[in-house]
Amino acid sequence: MTLLVLAKERFDDLTEVEEKLFSEIQKTGVAVFHEKWENIDPSTADLPELRAECVAWLLTDRKAGELITHRGATVKGARLTGKLDASFARFPWQFGLIRCHLLRTIILLDASLGVLSLSGSRITLLIGDRMQISGGLFLDDGFAAHGELRLLGASIGECMQCSGAVFCNEGDHALTGDGMHIAGNLYFDSDFVAIGEVRLLRSSIGGDLICSDGVLINEEGTALNLEGISVVGVVFLRELLVAGRIVADVAKLDKGLELKNNSWRSGGFLSLGGTVVGGLCDTKDGWPAKGNLCVNGFTYEAIHDEATKNVAERLAWLDLQPDDEYRPQPYEQLAAVYARNGFGSQARKVLIAKNDKLLWFYRHRSPLKRRKTYMAEFLKAQGDERIDAAERLLPDRFKAETDRLPKHNWGRHFWHWFLGKCVGYGYRPQRLLYIALGMVAVGWLLFGWGGGQGAMVPALAGAQECPRFQPLVYSLDTFLPLVDLEQKSRWVPDSRVAWSVGSLLGGYQVFHILMGWFLTTMGVAALIDRLKR
């Protein structure tokens, strides 16, 4: 029995085009209905029509499947009318609709196919939840979908090729692939266009995710959602035009993330909160504008050799985050990477910048200053902007915002500022040595001057033996706690006359001793802190 005979038993009114379909599929596995199918636009070309249920029957009928060879079933250059429902099909060979125009939905729920190729075709809606494809999925070469592509929980045994495709479902999901498994690479490149959200929540990719040389548009929402995705290879986000959000929170990118040469429209936002990557390779123009980046919780093992390791440029990158709350983790992560790679000096600069950022919040984001700022914005605003500004002053909303800020008081503010100036927040303890040497030098000059004026006298009047007064040793002896160089115990300023040189030196000596105790204590604390780190 031939496939055509079997089809006539199933369909009473086969057209000439449909008869050709069954004959050619059994002979060669390919049915061509347009001589120039390689160069046509299926949505406008004059294509012969055949019923979609005839194609679906090839995939779902057991007897028909026995008559189809390993070449599979591929249709080129046809217009399919009606719904193509091949749910639960078991077709181990290639199934292709190349340069075809499908007027209604393709349904492949729980279907099992060898290869699925829709290259160059125009479709409206594809529903392929839990579809199993042992080979590759090809939605490339000018493929266009003007509706949702839904592939929830689908499994692709090799690559998923979407190069040069157009996914258009404005304001909604263009591709929904939650929980997909792709064993090979996933390609969104070569002038790929997505209008609507491309969503791959909690999906896994065994190769690379290449998203480059394309357009992602969903201005009022998320353009690319990679939340929770797991990628064995590298995620490439390069040479993209982005209008909307790219969300890749809590993702796991084993080999790395590359961001280069992207163009971000106004409002374009990138979120990498909680994401773990093997390595980071980026350029300055790969990231969005100030206020539109979230890297809180973003961790990476190394910075690629092609990316900048300049501290100033890296700190400028971290400064792209919004100033709505204090986020120390990104600074600590960058410092850890520097330290692991032997760049201790750069690591300390980053940690100092982290504390400088905290000091900035103390200065500019105290609740009082924030309330004054919001009030000024409210008074200047007009229309709907005035309403939005008023809402920011509502007690509950204002409290929720200020609760995210570092707790502010002037004592803590001053102490943090003082530590920054004095010891670089503990990361530049050598400043204590410079201050101490300066104090000793000042003491040397003042006590030496006082000795020359006769204002330094023996501590014990009438003592038979008194060592010679030495200003430098005296300055050291009075400055260093718990040290006796037999100068401060033998010589004292002559303070018997008020406002004399001796009385002024006596006042300075008290300050000199107190500074010695303070700086020594700070030095010991800094040393202990360094040993802990």
Write structural notes for this entry.
The chain is an alpha/beta fold and 533 residues long. Among the domains are: 135-307; 363-421, no CATH class; 430-532, no CATH class. Helices cover 35% and strands 26% of the residues. It has 14 helices and 34 strands. A 14-stranded parallel β-barrel has the order 9-12-16-19-22-24-26-30-27-25-23-20-17-13. A three-stranded parallel beta sheet has the order 2-4-7. Strands 33-34 form a two-stranded antiparallel ribbon. Helix 8 (367-380) packs antiparallel against helix 9 (383-392) and helix 12 (430-452) runs antiparallel to helix 14 (501-532). The longest helix is centred in the C-terminal third of the chain and has 32 residues, at 501-532. The protein is elongated, with a radius of gyration of 37 Å. The N and C termini lie far apart (81 Å). The model has no long low-confidence stretch (mean pLDDT 89).
Descriptive terms for the model:
elongated; 533 residues; 14-stranded parallel beta barrel; alpha/beta
In brief:
The protein is α/β, with parallel strands linked by helices.
Give the radius of gyration: 37 Å
- End-to-end CA span: 81 Å
Uncertain runs with pLDDT below 50, 5 residues or more? none
Helix content: 25-40%
**Biggest sheet architecture:** 14 strands, parallel, barrel
* Assembly state: single chain
Continuous helix count:
14
Strand fraction band? 25-35%
Shape: elongated
Q: How many DSSP E strands?
A: 34
Whole-number mean pLDDT: 89
